[in-house]
Specification:
CATH architecture of the largest domain: 3-Layer(aba) Sandwich
Oligomer: single chain
CATH topology of the largest domain: Rossmann fold
Strand content: 5-15%
Number of strands: 5
Number of helices: 10
Helix content: 40-55%
Strand order of the largest sheet: 3-4-5
Shape: globular
Order of helices and strands: HHHHHEHEHEHEHEH
Radius of gyration: 17 Å
Number of domains: 2
CATH superfamily of the largest domain: HAD superfamily/HAD-like
Structural class: mainly alpha
């Protein structure tokens, strides 16, 4: 997310937009670009214009992030242990396809996650539950049997609306910000390593 913020700084400067404050991020992080850009520019936009802006901003992100993406602590161990226990994993993301492909290539996550549900595949983006419902459907698991990890309040709202238990990872927003949000997550942790040391400790067995 710091790399996204850096890319947005360049984008905002080029378009004379105000700085990306944490209050603005609370309202837009997790949303689809088709919803973010009209909010930022404060006007209606056609999809053609949105796609041009998306390529500008996300292209800058992909260039800035090449060789610089660092996984959240414990993420790879968690994925490895879920695989070992035969537990399915899906990504439910608002990111455009090019970003998903880029991130998987940069991090090697494609070896651990093959099921992806994208916001542009569903009628409504986060905070609506559609993308999480699609992820559960592709996992062939009832949504209320899924555990979602989210790093933005809007994403927490979407996961809970889908009927999932949701753990917030406080890498961008603080625990206090998550706990003050309605709906609040079921738990807030600093990273996946902490999850594995606590409620997910059983995954390290066997």
């Amino acid at each position: 997310m710091p790399l996204h913020a850096q890319a947005f700084e360049h984008f905002a400067g080029a378009h004379h937009l105000p700085p990306l404050t944490m209050d603005v991020r609370r309202r837009i992080d997790g949303k689809r670009n088709s919803e973010i850009f009209p909010m930022l520019f404060e006007r209606e936009m056609g999809m053609e214009e949105i796609l041009v802006l998306e390529e500008e901003k996300e292209g800058a992100y992909r260039q800035l992030s090449r060789g610089r993406i660092v996984l959240v602590r414990g993420a790879l161990t968690l994925l490895t242990r879920l695989q070992a226990h035969g537990i399915g994993v899906a990504v439910a993301t608002s990111a455009p396809l090019k970003n998903v492909v880029h991130t998987f290539a940069e991090t090697g996550l494609g070896a651990h996650v093959t099921i992806i549900a994208r916001g542009d595949e569903v009628p409504r983006g986060k905070p609506f539950p559609d993308v999480f419902a699609l992820a559960a459907e592709r996992l062939h698991v009832a949504a209320d049997q899924c555990l979602a990890f989210e790093d933005a309040p809007i994403g927490v709202a979407a996961a809970i609306a889908a009927g999932m238990t949701c753990v917030a990872i406080a890498t961008t927003f603080s625990a206090e910000q998550f706990e003050a949000h309605i709906p609040a997550p079921h738990a807030v942790l600093p990273d996946y390593e902490t999850f594995l040391a606590g409620p997910g400790r059983w995954l390290l067995d066997g």
